[in-house]
Design a protein that fits this description.
- With about 260 residues, the chain is of the alpha+beta class.
- It has one domain: Phosphatase 2c, domain 1, CATH 3.60.40.
- The chain contains 6 helices and 14 strands.
- The strands form 3 sheets. The chain has a 6-stranded antiparallel beta sheet with strand order 1-2-14-13-7-8.
- Strand 3 and strand 4 form a beta hairpin.
- Helix 1 crosses helix 2.
- The relative contact order is 0.18.
- The N terminus is likely disordered.
- Keywords: Hydrolase, Magnesium, Manganese, Metal-binding, Protein phosphatase.
- Its EC number is 3.1.3.16.
- It comes from Oldenlandia corymbosa var. corymbosa.
């Protein structure tokens, strides 16, 4: 389903759609699209908690549920993503940990908070004009919101403001996308999809998610995950191929 966001005639609009490919029944990702408040979010429960018998998917889903509750309590058109993240975190008593990226469109700009290795790209005229930075302590160990003593708090998140223009495309996703498809290839896919007139954003999100899943099953490709491992000084042969993971993608058209 697509969503139309706007509060007055002068503001830009964002039409968003999502697609989720879990690796298990529910997976560890979560997301939301809050249509009335021009706000979207993705979260990726950190899988390392499973070694302690903890399902971080529960934490991620509660985080996103809390985020929506916070958004609904804020004035229309004035969502503060930093407050949303803080409210979501401090009202989450679940065990585990999760990355988080929350983005709102207001005053013709994207206002976002991002913690960990989920994030977003902004594509303009076929080129990437912005990519949110990754936060990690070391290879494959992202910053994560958590109630544990070693977890991160919302004030560790990166605050971001990026101006947008009509025709821009926003792609927000968990690392299931970004570990398997290079940013320029994401832009190429979106450019091809843009040739299909009136393609709903949820179908574009599905195309990207399915492409990432296909890449994740390959043992031969050099993926972004492979390149990150090499940059960390690890053996490329060990990390060759994609990374099988949950994949969440939200695509939003700015117009």
């Amino acid at each position: 389903m697509g969503y139309d966001f706007c509060y007055n005639r002068s503001c830009l609009r964002m039409m968003a759609g999502a697609y989720y490919l879990p690796k298990t029944a529910l997976g560890e990702d979560a997301h939301f699209i809050c249509d009335e408040q021009q706000t979207i979010g993705v979260a990726d429960g950190v899988g390392g908690w499973s070694r302690y018998g903890i399902d971080s998917g529960v934490y991620a889903r509660k985080l996103m549920d809390n985020a929506v509750e916070s958004i609904q309590q804020q004035p229309k058109g004035k969502v503060n993503p930093g407050k949303v993240l803080a409210d979501a975190f401090f009202n989450n008593e679940a065990e585990g940990g999760s990355t988080a990226c929350i983005i709102t469109l207001k005053n013709n700009a994207l206002h976002a908070v991002n913690l960990g290795d989920s994030g977003f790209l902004l594509i303009r005229d076929g080129e990437i004009v912005y990519r949110s930075p990754i936060q990690q302590r070391y290879f494959n160990c992202p910053f994560q919101l958590s109630n544990s003593k070693n977890g991160d708090a919302p004030d560790s998140a990166r605050r971001i403001v990026v101006g947008v223009e009509p025709g821009d495309i926003l792609v927000a996703a968990t690392d299931g996308l970004f570990d398997n498809i290079f940013p320029d290839d994401i832009a190429d896919v979106m450019n091809l999809l843009s040739l299909e007139e009136e393609l709903p954003p949820e179908l574009a999100a599905r195309k990207l998610a399915e492409s990432a899943r296909q890449q994740s099953l390959s043992k031969q490709i050099v993926s972004p995950f492979t390149e990150a491992a090499v940059m960390a000084g690890l053996d490329s042969d060990v990390y060759r191929g994609g990374k099988f993971d949950d994949v969440t993608v939200i695509v939003a058209y700015i117009y």
